[in-house]
Amino acid sequence: MSAAAVPPGAPWPSPDVETYRRAAGRFATGVCVVTTRDGRLDHAITVSSFASVSLDPVLVLVCVHQDSRFLDAVTETRTWGLSVLAARARPAAAWLATPGRPVVDQLAQVPHRRGPLTGAALLDGSVATMECATEAEHAAGTHVLLVGRVLDVSLGPEDERPLLHHRGAFSEL
Length: 173
Prior knowledge:
The protein has helices at residues 17-25, 69-77, 90-96, and strands at 29-30, 32-38, 41-47, 50-55, 58-65, 79-85, 112-114, 121-123, 126-140, 143-155, 163-166, 169-172. By secondary structure, the protein is mainly beta. The strands form three sheets. The chain has a seven-stranded antiparallel beta sheet with strand order 3-2-6-9-10-5-4, sandwiched between helices. It has a three-stranded antiparallel beta sheet with strand order 1-11-12, with no helix packed on it.
């Protein structure tokens, strides 16, 4: 249906959700882990929705489910770490994507270091890491677009292959 076929003021049509999900899954993306530290408790999520937004200032965005514990924590802390995962970090990505995992010590078996500016966990086995401060939050359906000002960047080894997400599964180049 073309835009001209939708009468002014009429609602836009919606696609079949399952068909849309399959279509979106055909877009291969990188896999990231986003972390924050709320007091002495680490919060982490695996995301495939990461984008560079601006170079002046340097901004990135990630999409976070509006009902997540992570969003509550990062809204309070206003700082977070982003780890762009290498293929060898697949177990950490899978663990941190597991719904209902324990809140306490969820990074106990995930090798990481603390970001010097934010204290957020930055995962070993990353092709790049960033420390960010929240610049804006925008509600978008079931998610919140979290826009962060990049405070610091570190690069992993040049020969490290990235972890990808494609057709609902982890993959690699």
